Amino acid sequence: MFDRYQAGEQAVLVHVHFSDENSKEDLAELELLVASAGVEAVDVLTTSRQAPHAKYFVGSGKAEEIASAVKAHDANVVIFNHALSPSQERNLEAICQCRVLDRTGLILDIFAQRARTHEGKLQVELAQLRHISTRLIRGWTHLERQKGGIGLRGPGETQLETDRRLLRGRIKAILRRLEKVQKQREQGRRSRKRAEIPTVSLVGYTNAGKSTLFNQITNSHVYAADQLFATLDPTLRKIELNEVGATILADTVGFIRHLPHDLVAAFKATLQETQEADLLLHVVDVSEANHRETMGEVNAVLEEIDADEIQQLIVCNKIDSMDGVVARIDRDDEDVPIRVWMSAKTGEGVELLHQALSECLGRSMVNYTLRIPPAHSQLRGVLYELNCIDSEVYDSTGDWIVDVRMPSVDWNRLEKRLDKGISSFVVQH
User: Fold this and answer.
1) Which ranges constitute the DSSP H helices of 223-349?
2) What is the CA radius of gyration of the chain?
């Protein structure tokens, strides 16, 4: 149904420098994305603009230059390092006489190549369908209406309307199947909470070394490669930590600047492993010059998926690529670990990471005694859902006196969710 290009083709890359910080993209990152997609970049064209051109995104002169480069190199596809509107894509295709792809389409193509599990494939297909639904007209410009006549009278729809109806049906079917997957994941999380097994989720910019670190800690053999989006499907493994015991470690998909919203929505089931974690291991490639920027991008995505309140331990990875940097733990004023400097590749500093994880997870549990009046019985129901009640008794006034033990992140969430805040129910000692 869709005319997607095949990997192994020749591409002309287009990058526009904008003065606006929010519109800026990284040209080196585009080249890495293109290499990850298995495409050969035959030419790179750059230009500067204050704002995108309404018709071609670039100016009409630059559009002609792109078309000339396509002919000169016999390229099959033009890839923009920006998000294009459907009309801009069509106008550029008309002038270049080849397929035009924007940054979102390129990332979706990489995801389609990397999806291995049934869930991953469903999530990628959902993101692709949502993205492509606005671009359907490309395939059917030669068909005005379905043919009429005896035996060929259709429902009176244009071919485009038929396609959109089929698309909506397919999207609904995928959402239903993903809902089942989400329920299964939720069940697993609930049983882990009942068993009081904490979850640590690896997050970070794509290609920061998360899967290599995951393999180093868990002695697993998860696919790890020096390319963008090597990991797509989440993997969970159990590890043992001193003073904490059994802990679940989750390897998740890497983030990237301006992560397409279609992807964030489609990967809701996967990203929930991050939302429900007790601790986030934020893996940073400190050998990169722009690592502070990429940290900001990851934090922006975490805020978007409501995971910014969760305690973070920053892993400064790839110190083996730097001179004079040794494995160490950085601590805050309260002596809590905030950064671990290490190398996932060589294993230098892994013991320090285990130590920091044990300290962070040991501190992350809170114990309180609450007095809950009958008028706030809903709070008691929420506490039972979280499986955090150690004991409860009635007092003479009919209030519940409840002893709770829960991760501090859950306590902070309840503090924000409740009108009065959960701390208002704490019994004063």
Assistant:
1) 261-266, 268-275, 291-304
2) 26
Instruction: Indicate the length of the chain as a whole number.
Output: 429
Other Cβ atoms less than 10 A from the Cβ of 41: the count is 16
CA torsion, ordered 379, 382, 386, 390, to nearest 10 deg: 40
Residue 106 in contact with residue 114, Cβ under 8 Å?
no
Please check the confidence at residue 101 and state whether its pLDDT lies above 80: yes
Strand order in the sheet with 337-341: 235-241, 245-251, 199-204, 279-285, 312-317, 337-341, 328-331
DSSP letter for 309, please.
Answer: T
CA–CA separation, 77 and 5 (whole Å): 8
Residue type, 275: Q
Among 101-115, 150-164, 317-331, the least confident range: 150-164
C-alpha distances in angstroms, 184 versus 181, 250, 311, 405?
A: 5, 16, 26, 25
Q: How far is residue 181's CA from residue 416's CA, in Å, rounded to a whole number?
A: 29
Q: How many Cα atoms are found within 13 Å in the side-chain-facing hemisphere of 318? A: 15
Task: Tell me how far apart the alpha carbons of residues 77 and 99 are, in angstroms, rounded to a whole number.
Answer: 5
Quickly tell me which residue has 């005896």 as its tokens: 150
Farthest CA pair distance, the chain: 88
Q: Whole-angstrom Cα distance, residue 219 to residue 374?
A: 50
Nearest C-alpha neighbor of 140 from the set 169, 156, 126, 161:
161
Q: State CA 282 to chain mean position distance.
A: 13
- What SS3 state is found at 425? helix
Question: Helix crossing, 268-275 with 118-132: angle to 10°?
Answer: 120
Whole-prediction pTM: 0.66
Q: What is the DSSP string of 127-190?
A: HHHHHHGGGGGGGGTT-SS---STT----S--HHHHHHHHHHHHHHHHHHHHHHHHHHHHHHHH
Confidence class for position 197, pLDDT limits 50, 70, 90: confident
Bridge partners for 414 per DSSP: none
Rounded Cα distance, 407 and 197, in Å: 11
- The Cα 167–Cα 132 span in angstroms is 10
Coil vs helix vs strand at 328 = strand
Distance from chain centroid for Cα 128: 15
Judge contact between 345 and 320, C-beta under 8 A.
yes
Query: Phi-psi region for residue 377, left (φ > 0), alpha (ψ -120 to 50) or beta?
Result: alpha
Q: Which has the minimum average pLDDT: 13-22, 278-287, 309-318?
A: 13-22
